[in-house]
Amino acid sequence: REKGKVNSQTQKWLNQHSNYTPKAIITIPVVVHVVWNTNQENISDAQIFSQIDILNADYRRTNADAINTPIVWNSVAADCEIEFCLATIDPNGAATTGITRTQTSQTSFSIQNDGMKHSSSGGIDAWPNEYYLNIWVCDLGGGLLGYATPPSNFLSNEDGVVIGYRYFGSTGTAQPPYHRGRTTTHEVGHWLNLEHVWGGWGSCGNDNVSDTPTQEDENYSCPSFPESPNSCGTTNANGDMFMNYMDYTNDACMNLFTNGQKARMISAINQYRPNLLNHNLCTGSTPNPSWNCINGGCVDPGNGNGTYS
Ligand code: ZN
Ligand code: CA
Q: What is the pLDDT of residue 204?
């Protein structure tokens, strides 16, 4: 019911903003929560940076494999004008790397109980969901690569994206064929209100995006173009847009979002995640720590003692 409401509110916003152009690139502040049990699960900073780079490339269409988009869809392929940064300011206003690391006794987590999202269950609580994109990286059970919460009128403290540590970034523990960071590109798409290109509710569903062809079902592996022409009895000779990030194909096979998907994501940010439009969580700097002096006795904020001069 909430999903239907979000869809109708989205359509209304899009109708009212048909000439909308973003004032500037939208930069989404990200915190990556690494929740680890084995050393291998404690992925490196470099692996996290590789994922942020991939998000930026995919959402700005600067991905090197954009040239693999079939010519027939070049005109609908979008620079989504959305970027991502690791937050530089934490919820207390202090400087941060935008990365948290939590050792846990849990050997794996599941979508059923969202355990990685709470300190009380061996994970770590979200940073305020209305200001940050929370991404938890952990050992995710059940054969799942990742999952996300779609936007909603009732933002919960479990809002965010979860990715299995084998499917995050493009180095370290990332495993083929999900080793190019597209699991996160896909899940962030859900977080910004995108549905699967096949609609996701049975065969020939509707993703509420007009420039993605109607598609019978999900695709896996890496089909060759054109795949299953005239799927769903349409006259679309180009077949499925299986290289869309919102299909289930291999990372190396995906390469685009469309203009219609971009509009839906921009709408989602404006309607449900408006704090992402204007903030200093990526560029802000914290005040220099100051000397703390009481009755002439001073503590050097740098090393805890010293002489004030
Ligand atoms: Zn999905
Ligand atoms: Ca469509």
A: 84
